[in-house]
Please model this.
Amino acid sequence: MTKSADTKVKDRDDGLDMGPLPNLMGYLTRRAQMAIFEDFHARFADEDIRPAQYSVLKLIALNPGARQTEVSAALGIQRSNFGPMFDALEQRGLVERRPLEADRRSLALYLTASGEAAMVRLDALVEAHEAKFVKRIGLQGKVTLQTLLFLLTSGE
Amino acid sequence: MTKSADTKVKDRDDGLDMGPLPNLMGYLTRRAQMAIFEDFHARFADEDIRPAQYSVLKLIALNPGARQTEVSAALGIQRSNFGPMFDALEQRGLVERRPLEADRRSLALYLTASGEAAMVRLDALVEAHEAKFVKRIGLQGKVTLQTLLFLLTSGE
Model:
């Protein structure tokens, strides 16, 4: 067999030259986030809950009566995306909107009794999911990671 | 003014109770990735290039003739998403498909001359984008971050 195009194709199987990509902050954090979310998706498949949905439910559980604008802003979710996401959770009977006492034009968000019950299961799933990753870098590694990611995204 | 519902609403302005959310690995990496991508989007608005599109262009620049399946696998992009993304770049004249010499059923990916010219501009934008974030944590911080994210996403 000659050193032909076949050989070149064979070389490809050893992997592509990634160049500087794996060292870029954006690429690095994106791939890490994707890997973590993949584990989340697998664990939460039966509950049919995505990471952003869990964040919304958790924030409402911690802050019953919070306004929609507060919750979306705190989580960095665009208001145009938050509406449909909340609607879907409401249709599943997990959350509800009620007029805000102090300002009847605003709506306050609450978990339903069914939502409260779901949170017990979801929190347990998150705990196991989180423990898997903390185990890999240790508690000190987690603190260092938090500090670096905080510094990375703070500033002018 | 009495300590009424108004006071409670006022309290909300100080921010919601985030509970354990900011300490969860998934939330942490997602928010960091979002902040980094926000800077990317602002810098690349005139070029109309998103982070995933840059990764695809860069990988093809580094590996001319790579196959579609190799590029999508290396970047963790689902094949169903890769096709339309590549088509859009092809319609803009930045990339092209050619039959693979060793296997005429497969297609090899290349940058066009216009794509090569674009990469010079895009690489310069990425360099400035990256420098902004590295400056915040230093080169040693970057190495530590890389190590932690690698450990975080490696394992059983």
Observations:
- The beta strands of chain A are 66-67, 95-99, 107-111.
